[in-house]
Amino acid sequence: MRPYSLWSHSAHHGRRAVPGRRAPSSYPRAVSDRYGDDVLSSPSPHHRRRPTAQPFPARTGEVVEEVESGFVGAVLAVEKSGGQHVVVLEDRHGATRTFPLGPGFWVDGAPVLLTPPPPAPGPGPDRRAPHGRT
């Protein structure tokens, strides 16, 4: 029996070892790196990006979901309490809960940033004729 050598496998494949030459490899010389240099450096086009929250005015009657608790309800009111705006939601069973306005809500399956509703238009200018003598 011969001692083990790097070239012993070539005898089994019908190849002869040539001194000074490397043994043939079954791998191609240029192997593509499918992972790239740094897998965390840039987002892959195959990964979906997390959707960004869009501002959404909390109008009365809009149905929203509070993400942390999973509470789903219609907007009853937006109030200012303790120096911050809060939204009062009522679920389908009539239970009400209050949450601070801002991020953490979903509307129609998309994240939103709840904002106070736009101010209601005030009464227009007084269009009555003056009642004075001229």
Low-pLDDT windows of residues = none
Structural class call reads mainly beta
Head-to-tail CA distance between termini: 132 Å
Please state roughly what percent of the residues sit in beta strands, choosing from under 5%, 5-15%, 15-25%, 25-35%, 35-45% or over 45%: 25-35%
Oligomer: single chain
Number of alpha- plus pi-helical segments: 1
Overall 3D form: elongated
What can you see in these coordinates?
The model has no long low-confidence stretch (mean pLDDT about 80). With about 130 residues, this protein is mainly beta. The protein is about 5% helix and about 30% strand. Strand 2 (about 65) and strand 3 (about 70-80) form a beta hairpin. It has a domain at about 55-115: SH3 type barrels (Roll). It is elongated, with a radius of gyration of 36 Å.
Give short descriptive properties of this protein.
elongated, SH3 type barrels, mainly beta, 134 residues, 7 strands, 7-stranded mixed β-sheet
